[in-house]
Specification:
8 helices; 7-stranded parallel β-sheet; alpha/beta; 247 residues
Length: 247
């Protein structure tokens, strides 16, 4: 029976992935900033741990409490819509602190046990924004693109120790809390010169024929975790698959 540690399980992809792996018989360690029983109730084979991936002490404590794990899923992240011209650099740093440096810190925290056992898998959840960038998410795209390059290099570095690193790339997920969770952060980021353009972009998103669901991402993570092939990228969602094929 394998154990998986998933970050960002309070909603969306992380929550659905935790439920998916638990239903498949795995031991699941679901991490979120503030555990809430009404979101995910601990039970047999399912533990819920507090974790803030921007704080080293929180990471150290969560990894110690999780114990030996077989798979780490770096899913925790924050979103950001807005014109880059209007985005304070401190806000850009906040996005990178979670999406990029938090992912790197979590990965670094589990690598000693993976290397010593000569087994283990890190799955980094990024975005098709890194595959086919679109407007008004420049900072977010940069933070996820950094993880794509990080993952490619790290996969080569760790192959010598039989440790694998993979990417799951979700498409546009309107049913997630991407916008709601970052509403305060995004206040004022669509400045007046960009408003008409932003409305056209949002309208295009609203008319999207194919989107990515939480279930599609959970299925892609499951595939990546159980696929013995040396595949690096796993697009998640019909729109992500179409983009990957087009690329």
């Amino acid at each position: 029976m394998k154990t998986i540690l998933i970050t960002g399980c309070s909603s969306g992809y992380g929550l659905e992935t935790a439920r998916h792996f638990h239903a498949k018989g795995w031991n699941v360690v679901a991490a979120m900033r503030t555990p809430k029983p009404e979101i995910l109730m601990p039970r047999d084979r399912l533990r819920v741990l507090p974790l803030d991936i921007t704080r080293s002490a929180s990471i150290e404590q969560a990894v110690a409490l999780a114990g030996p794990i077989d798979v780490l899923v770096n899913n925790a992240g924050i979103g950001l819509f807005g014109a880059f011209e209007a985005t304070p650099i401190d806000t850009v740093r906040e996005v990178f602190e979670t999406n990029t440096f938090g992912t790197m810190a979590m990965t670094q925290a589990v690598l000693p046990q993976f290397r010593e056992r000569r087994s283990g898998l890190v799955i980094n959840v990024t975005s098709t924004a890194a595959m086919a960038p679109f407007p008004l998410v420049a900072a977010y795209t940069a933070s996820k693109t950094a993880i794509e390059g990080f993952t490619e290099s790290l996969a080569l570095e760790l192959a010598n120790f039989d440790v694998r690193v993979k990417l799951v790339e979700p498409g546009y997920g309107p049913s997630t809390r991407f916008a709601a969770n970052g509403a305060e952060r995004m206040q004022g980021l669509i400045s007046e010169p960009y408003m008409a353009y932003a409305r056209s972009i949002f309208a295009a998103f609203g008319a999207a024929a194919t989107v990515t669901t939480e279930a599609a991402v959970a299925a892609a993570v499951w595939h990546a975790a159980n696929d013995p092939a040396a595949t690096l990228r796993y697009p998640a969602g019909d729109d992500a698959i179409a983009l990957a094929q087009a690329r």
